[in-house]
Amino acid sequence: MLIIDGVKYKLWTPKDEEGEFHPMIKEHSKEIFGKDSIYFDVKHKLKSSAKIGSIPDAYVVCLSKPYTWYIVENELASHRVYEHIVPQISKFISGIENYNSQREVRDVLYDMITRDRILKARVEKKIYPEEIHHFLTSILLKPPKIAIIIDEVTAEVEEASKHLRKLGDTKVVEFKTFVREDAETVHAHLFEPLYSYMPQTILEIKEPVKQEISEVKIGDSIDIELRGISFRKYSLIRIPKNDRHFFPGYKIGFVLKTDVGIFKAKVTGARAGTQLGDPDGGTYIQGGLRKFYDKHPELTPGRKVRFTCIEPYKSYKLEII
Prior knowledge:
Shape: globular
Number of domains: 2
Strand content: 25-35%
Mean pLDDT: 87
Distance between the termini: 45 Å
Number of helices: 9
Low-confidence stretches: 197-201
């Protein structure tokens, strides 16, 4: 148990690695890797010259000197860690030594940066006068650091990490999550960051903005048209501005019931500094949608989905119309 200012928090363990744990790591990537880091949530296979490959969970590029980059593997300790992680990381290291793999990763990251005008401007400012394509080429020639982020460092994880450090520069981050006893949407995270100039443990607590109950009632529904081409790639649904108040405040979790399962979701994509629970904050629904999109290849730009309120601000049904 964790007690902060007299308030009790209990340890919470994610059950769904991709639906619950991965989004938390992405959300707190700057606290883990540094404020000048970029977390690329992209699944791109690394293949060795012998065509043996594996797919990392993410890539991270740090824009502070000395420039570094990470291959990221997010794991739950409840899985068979040693049997999974050791072969996986070995394949990552073999794969990235292949020049063709380096070039493919560079092209993927370059495309993601240049398609986002704000991100592109930020990167250009940090690496000036170097050009983005050349910068990515040169940084990927360096051996990557391997970041294994896990909810609990067990004896099995310790044993695996000892073996992996012989293969390359491997860092293990224990990322623990606590929930407030009387308000489980309030989270506290406990972990050691990877950037050296802040070695102390970071404890982050988020208190949500109280959201007034609106006119949304059980059975109410809205239809949203899928637009653009990135919704499927990034597993998101953009919320029209007029429909924003149909959902909970910024980053307040809610249940999403679909034909492929029940997921935890939240509204994300707000400006830096947006307070947790802000009813106007955020523009995208995130959480569990990758599985939904994978099952429904017919969801192309122009198609519509329907959200029906099961319990206001707590539970919704998602279906194709």
